[in-house]
Description:
Layout: E1 2-4, E2 15-16, H1 20-34, E3 40-48, E4 57-60, E5 62-64, H2 68-71, E6 83-85, E7 107-109, H3 118-126, E8 129-132, H4 136-146, E9 150-159, H5 164-186
Parallel strand pairs: 1-2, 1-3, 3-9, 5-7, 7-8
Antiparallel strand pairs: 3-8, 4-9, 5-6
Amino acid sequence: MIVCAGNIETFPFAHPIGMGLCESAVNLTRLVMMMPPEFLLFVGSAGSYGKYGVFDIVESKAASQIELSYLEKRSYTPLETNLIVSEGNVSRETFSEKSIGADRPVIVNSSNYITTDFELAKRFDRLGIGLENMEFYAVMQVARSFGIPCGGIFVVTNLCDERAHTDFMKNHDEAMGRLVDYLHQRIPNLETIHP
């Protein structure tokens, strides 16, 4: 099953699940209970913490939920883990114009807030966290709860800096086109689920 956030990121081959951590978790849980899939694939845009450039396509099977305040030692979490790595039939390769090695998955961080401080973004990058997407951690958490292998394919629309929103809007249409082209190549039998 292919899912996406929705709003301005909808695809004829993907079920929209909502924006942010809460909406996507609730709606994906409902969807999975009604139509249990063998595999979950999230597709959408992401901001880069510095390692990836605009329009790079990146595949991931790892998600974190780390807030900026944690990097500044202004918060802590009582949760046992804030990193989820999907097991099973998820690709271990990362596809991008830049080669980073297939032995370490790209981690995608999620928050309901967008990082606009590039110095903090670079700290995520140094921790091995490459991208930022609002929904992916929630998708991975739902998949883990139901025992479903999961992955994500992302197109970079912007760096996580002071121009994040402006660049996101400027690059979004072209990025979505590139993502759709990539998905048609990667998944040749991509089926339309929405007329």
